[in-house]
Predict the structure of HD-Zip IV C-terminal domain-containing protein.
Amino acid sequence: MMQVNSSPNKIEILYLQESYTDETGSYIVYAPMDIMAMSKILNGGNLKFVSILPSGFSIMPDKAPGQGDGAVGSILTLAFQSVDRLSNKEYMPQSTLKIIDAILSTTVASIKDAMLFGIRY
């Protein structure tokens, strides 16, 4: 669970997550949900009124296992979903683009650091 500040109140966020890994690759899919929405679902509420926006990433080798000699790299694929009430088909505010860039950059850097941490130690 993660707490996100929303002045002046705090919003508690839960993450539904699924992950899998084997020699062909790995993936993590997650969907942030606030506690109020989760509570409604668990108490028999209508799912129609709760938005679940899954995001995630996959990491796959750039070669099939056992194929050729030499270094094997990785292919990283990211997928994010979000809701921005200020955007429409013709217009996306600069602030939204900056937020998207920050999310993608931070996520890629965190994944890269985690992968390199496993190699270094």
